[in-house]
Amino acid sequence: AQTVTQSQPEMSVQEAETVTLSCTYDTSESDYYLFWYKQPPSRQMILVIRQEAYKQQNATENRFSVNFQKAAKSFSLKISDSQLGDAAMYFCAYRSAGAGGTSYGKLTFGQGTILTVHP
Amino acid sequence: DGGITQSPKYLFRKEGQNVTLSCEQNLNHDAMYWYRQDPGQGLRLIYYSQIVNDFQKGDIAEGYSVSREKKESFPLTVTSAQKNPTAFYLCASSAGSLAGRTEAFFGQGTRLTVV
Fold this sequence. Notes:
The complex is a heterodimer. Helices cover 0% and strands 51% of the residues of chain A. Chain A is mostly beta strands. The termini of chain A are far apart. Chain A contains no helices and 12 strands. In chain A, strand 5 and strand 6 form a beta hairpin. Helices cover 0% and strands 45% of the residues of chain B. Chain B contains no helices and 11 strands. In chain B, the strands form 2 sheets. In chain B, strands 2, 4, 5, 6, 9, 10 and 11 form a 7-stranded mixed sheet that branches. In chain B, strands 1-3-8-7 form a 4-stranded antiparallel sheet, with no helix packed on it. Chain B is globular and about 40 Å long. Classes of the chains: A mainly beta, B mainly beta. Chains A and B meet through strand 6 and strand 11 of A and strand 4, strand 5, strand 9 and strand 10 of B.
């Protein structure tokens, strides 16, 4: 079974600065997807960024980028130019790509990191 | 607008009662999921369904039941056998692996409290 670990229960950053959230995972599979989801105080889960394991290039979405190290099974999220609206709980998640479409799209989540942004 | 609707937003259950949480999606997604969120534990999978009339147990299915009679609907029943049901429950859907789409979309959640 796959496991996802977020070792930082809480992080803080000053507005306009950069912060990196860590995530490691354990799997014996070679094909999978990794995600970062954001959960603000409203508790709505919002997809931040997605990475396909077969792609060597790190995914980027505006101020959000990842550092994907497949051999090390590491998937960190970097938030640049942090904004007050970035304050939220961030979850790292794993999904198997599956063979023949049998993965059902199940997500395995880490424990989450609470990000505080100071003005 | 397409999306996932969960209701109610807040639900209170007395000891020994069964309660049902509603989840409806109009995204035409094949797969639907129920997750439970407790403080400090992230989200844990309760049940999931790939197609109508088929569903599978997740990691913490004991004390819960589901049905999938329609593609759009995936209700979750919290039975009296669930000893610690107070939690935040999230429903999600995805287009499924075969569709080439990988992300899951989430509802706004139901907060269940035992009184």
